[in-house]
Amino acid sequence: MARSDPSAPGNEAFFSRPALEVARELLGSRISDGDVVVLLTEVEAYSGESDPASHAFRGPTPRNEVMYGPAGRVYVYFSYGMHHCVNLVSEQPGIASAVLLRAGRVVDGHHTARERRGAVSDAALARGPGNLGKTLGATTALTGTTVWDGPLRWTPAGASGPVGAGPRVGVSRAADLPWRLWLIGEPSVSPYRRHPRADPPPG
DNA sequence: ATTCGGATAAGG
DNA sequence: CTTATCCGAATT
User: Fold this and answer.
1) Is A164 exposed, middle or buried (0-12, 13-18, 19+ CB in 10 A)?
2) Greatest CA separation found in chain A?
């Protein structure tokens, strides 16, 4: 190997699957930036141009272009003019798909994390996608980097606990697809907030 | 429950 | 130009 990690082929294969499947297996795995290490506790799948809640629903744009490329790349979008939200691209090239990293538990680098986030509880450091992005120091400049030879490094999960599934947060269309997954009992998981204009829940 | 902040993209 | 959005903090 000249530059990239020898585990790159395996990592790319891991991400080159349907977003929901990748999302499920991301729970309990780790993503790091320098000394800051986060164990992922909450993720959401966004799958293809047929998913009305996905940034790719209306086809390619300069912002979402990376979602159409090979898996294992980082997609950071700048949200509401202030938050950097981190996604990991999944599926094969041509199928725009990604997993939004919604929350995690900081397991190392608390000092750096708190420099970025301020005086909040450990559980709140990386609770919510904007806060997780801030904890990792993410900016849109990370878009397109891989999680094996870029600033963000991903390592597979060991064991992880029971998994909950429910509606995605803040989406107004396809609001009740249970594509938000989390580790049950984790205090770092963000509270569910339904989009104000989503259709009423079924039942 | 509501309000601001203010990038990105779609539609008029 | 107007409206909506994969959000978070602060306020009613």
Assistant:
1) middle
2) 56
Query: Phi, psi (5° rounding) for residue A92?
Result: -80, 155
pLDDT surpasses 80 at A5: no
Quote the CA–CA distance of A174 and A116 in Å, as a whole number: 34
Taking the C-alpha atoms of residue A110 and residue A61, their distance in angstroms, rounded to an integer, is 36
Q: What one-letter code names the amino acid at A120?
A: V
Backbone angles phi, psi at A60, to 5 degrees: -70, 140
Burial class (CB in 10 A: 0-12, 13-18, 19+), A35: exposed
The pLDDT tens digits of the residues spanning A53-80 come to 999 999 999 999 999 999 999 999 999 9
Distance A13 CA to C11 C1' (A): 47
Distance A137 CA to C1 C1' (A): 35
pLDDT tens-place string over residues A155-192: 998 888 999 999 999 999 999 999 999 999 999 999 99
Say whether the CB atom of A193 is under 7 angstroms from strand B: no
Distances (CA, A) of A4 to A15, A66, A73, A181, A190: 17, 19, 14, 31, 34
